From TrEMBL:
Pfam family, one: HTH_31
Protein name (record): Transcriptional regulator
Record PROSITE patterns: HTH_CROC1
SUPFAM superfamilies per UniProt: lambda repressor-like DNA-binding domains (SSF47413)
Organism: Streptomyces rubiginosohelvolus
SMART domains, alphabetized: HTH_XRE
Location of the HTH cro/C1-type domain: 21-74
Length: 97
């Protein structure tokens, strides 16, 4: 099965996630945090460096628990920038014949 390429937005979101996790890890070793989350240190390294920009939900949830982050914090830090809403379209004026 061929995996579809990631969009630039997905890559950016993955970079944000990696930076957030790395900052939250602080001085703790990658191996210790990974073990606490039940994942391999290699998986954590790939997520932190953006090489795995779309990790599974339960992986993110386990890392959040190990690092003391809420899923709301992660979502707020990693979500795409809000798009500018388009201007409302004025209602059509009926033509009187």
């Amino acid at each position: 099965m061929v995996r579809t390429p990631l969009t630039p937005e997905e890559r950016l979101r993955g970079e944000r996630l990696g930076a957030l996790l790395r900052a939250a890890r602080g001085e703790r070793s990658m191996a210790a945090v990974a073990a606490s989350a039940g994942i391999s240190a290699e998986t954590l390294r790939k997520i932190e460096t953006g090489r795995a920009p779309t990790p599974a939900f339960f992986t993110v949830a386990a890392l959040a628990g190990a690092l003391g982050l809420s899923l709301d914090e992660i979502l707020g830090s990693c979500a795409a920038e809000p798009a500018v809403a388009p201007a409302p379209v004025p209602a059509a004026v009926p033509l009187i014949a």
